[in-house]
Amino acid sequence: MSHRFANPDRQDQILLDEMLQEPRKFKVLLHNDDYTTMEFVIAVLVQVFRKTAQQATAIMLSVHEKGVGECGVFTAEVAETKVAIVHARARKEGFPLRCSMEEV
């Protein structure tokens, strides 16, 4: 006789393991454009991503030279919020700065 849940303790452990998994992580990226000033990018990195001036400058240079720079790694909700904040600030200042998130 076969039971679907022949070992209920095992089933409970599987459910617990699924519930305890680390949340998915996403890296937030800034993308280069020809209009957003370097000063604005640095300000966003300091204010939104809590980077030091030195860290912000290094990321800004990556954006400028490589076309993209990583701002940090966050849970989905935090990453989505930071992307929205960057876009809102950029639009308010008249910049086309693009920010995206990508699963790690």
TrEMBL record:
Residues annotated as domain Adaptor protein ClpS core: 21-100
Pfam families cross-referenced by the UniProt entry: ClpS (PF02617)
BP term (GO), one: protein catabolic process
Keywords of this entry: Hydrolase, Protease
GO MF assignments: peptidase activity
Keyword Hydrolase belongs to the record: yes
Keyword Hydrolase: yes
Function: Involved in the modulation of the specificity of the ClpAP-mediated ATP-dependent protein degradation.
Family membership: Belongs to the ClpS family.
Self-association and partners: Binds to the N-terminal domain of the chaperone ClpA.
Name of the protein this chain belongs to: ATP-dependent Clp protease adapter protein ClpS
Naturally occurring in which organism (per UniProt): Desulfovibrio subterraneus
